[in-house]
Amino acid sequence: MRIIRLILSVLAILFTLFMAIITPFALIGTLIVAAGLYLGSQKRKGNLIFSKPGWMTATGLILTFILGIALSEPVEQTASESQKSQLASVETKKAEEKEKKEEARKEADQKAEEEAAAKKKEEEAKAKVAAEEKAKAEAKAKEEAEAKAAAEKKANEQKNLAQKFGLEAVTVSRVVDGDTIELSDRRKVRLIGVNTPESTTRHEEYGKEASNYTTKELQGKKVWIQKDVSETDRYSRYLRFVWLAVPSNDRDENEIRNKMFNAKLVLNGYAEPSTYAPDVKYSDVFVKFAREARGKNVGLWAFGANGTTKGDLDPKEQKSTAVATTPTKPSSSGSNSTSTSQPKPAPAPAPKAEYYQNCTELRKVYPNGVPSTHPAYAPKHDRDKDNFACER
């Protein structure tokens, strides 16, 4: 009997707990059932607190059942609403997470697009720079090729002109004095048609300046030398004109003025023109340049109208021929008349190498006239007595 009561008590408690799980309000019946079981236990021990504890237990069971049945649907509804709320919360979280993921994806896509655009822009910039560098390189190569072709063309033109005018390319290794140089092959060259003041064995005014000028302009430089008629002088020096650059026309006055060193010596007053036949190719031009320099009192002309050394513009020495007269002796017939003997004729002058009737004829050969040292010079053609005949 005792075991049965224990089993029934356990079942009652389990039932009430089950109903309490369904609805919290069923806990009231559970408490009543527990109180009834406790009072019944006390009654059996002889401690009477409530006379009918069985009824209390039964009432608790009935109340638990009623409350469980009556309130189970709202509980289920509450549970459903709670679940719905939880589901809604989960959906909201999912939506938020989805939105965040979408935003993250958009940001990632935007970042990827920006990176792609930046990369494309960078590649375009690199391609542009590469294209510009390539264009510059091509332009530079083209320019260099054109410059090379122009240089080769110019070199060929200079070579042809040098051959045409009989120019020889040489290098000046040493300057002896203002009008004498030594080449790298040991040849000594005397400049034709000019004479600078002496500065070696003897010294003349402005000789050192002329020597220094020639050293500055020629020593160590590449130049072109040109022969006239004579190969060498009596000192075995080569007689040459010196060109600083190949002329396009070796008879053009501007070319001579700007490119021939012999002419520059005269123009700058470092030398006087000094002509010795047969090397007279530029004698008239040199005399013209000397007059320009003398008119400006340049260089050696600052020391006087005759300069400081010998040249074509120096006064020519006049030679006079004496005419002798002798008295006549009386005739042997003893006549008082006397007669005067005729003077002896002067010896005829030696014939000139070249002779012209007048300046018109002379200018056909020498358009600018000739200096006093020229074989075609004649005093009758030099009316102004400046030692230059038939000048214009």
From TrEMBL:
<keyword id="KW-0472">Membrane</keyword>
<dbReference type="Pfam" id="PF00565">
    <property type="entry name" value="SNase"/>
</dbReference>
<feature type="domain" description="TNase-like">
    <location>
        <begin position="166"/>
        <end position="303"/>
    </location>
</feature>
<dbReference type="InterPro" id="IPR035437">
    <property type="entry name" value="SNase_OB-fold_sf"/>
</dbReference>
<feature type="compositionally biased region" description="Low complexity">
    <location>
        <begin position="325"/>
        <end position="343"/>
    </location>
</feature>
<feature type="transmembrane region" description="Helical">
    <location>
        <begin position="54"/>
        <end position="72"/>
    </location>
</feature>
<feature type="compositionally biased region" description="Basic and acidic residues">
    <location>
        <begin position="379"/>
        <end position="392"/>
    </location>
</feature>
<feature type="region of interest" description="Disordered">
    <location>
        <begin position="304"/>
        <end position="392"/>
    </location>
</feature>
<feature type="compositionally biased region" description="Basic and acidic residues">
    <location>
        <begin position="91"/>
        <end position="125"/>
    </location>
</feature>
<feature type="transmembrane region" description="Helical">
    <location>
        <begin position="6"/>
        <end position="33"/>
    </location>
</feature>
<feature type="region of interest" description="Disordered">
    <location>
        <begin position="80"/>
        <end position="125"/>
    </location>
</feature>
<keyword id="KW-1133">Transmembrane helix</keyword>
<feature type="compositionally biased region" description="Polar residues">
    <location>
        <begin position="80"/>
        <end position="89"/>
    </location>
</feature>
<dbReference type="Pfam" id="PF05901">
    <property type="entry name" value="Excalibur"/>
</dbReference>
<protein>
    <submittedName>
        <fullName>Nuclease</fullName>
    </submittedName>
</protein>
<keyword id="KW-0812">Transmembrane</keyword>
<dbReference type="InterPro" id="IPR008613">
    <property type="entry name" value="Excalibur_Ca-bd_domain"/>
</dbReference>
<dbReference type="InterPro" id="IPR016071">
    <property type="entry name" value="Staphylococal_nuclease_OB-fold"/>
</dbReference>
